[in-house]
Amino acid sequence: QVQLVESGGGLVQAGASLRLSCARSGRTSSRYAMGWFRQAPGKEREFVGGISWSGDRTRYADQVKGRFTISTDNAKITTYLQMNSLKPEDTAVYYCAADRNDYPDDVPQRQWDYDYWGQGTQVTVST
Q1: What is the pLDDT of residue 76?
Q2: Which of the 8 DSSP states describes residue 15?
Q3: Which letter does DSSP use for residue 43 in this model?
């Protein structure tokens, strides 16, 4: 079993930055692609970005490209989502997710590809 715990959310003004963290515990294998999703009130959960378990590949949703960056620590235990130039439309609950994956450079974008989920952290961007 894998547990994921997000942290780092909060209330910021438009244009500010935040860094979310996702700490993974449980199974010791590092072969997990990690994804970030978000869900705004009244909207469906959407893919924000992800990183392969090799660390060599990242993917981002068009609406965050150039503003958000995903990285991991050397042990691939903690995954980060650096969010810059935040906009009010980035307001949502952000979730990290882990996909046990046999392919080192795969970065799934669909929710159902991910096996484990964190509890979510709220990000609110004010005007």
Answers
A1: 81
A2: T
A3: S
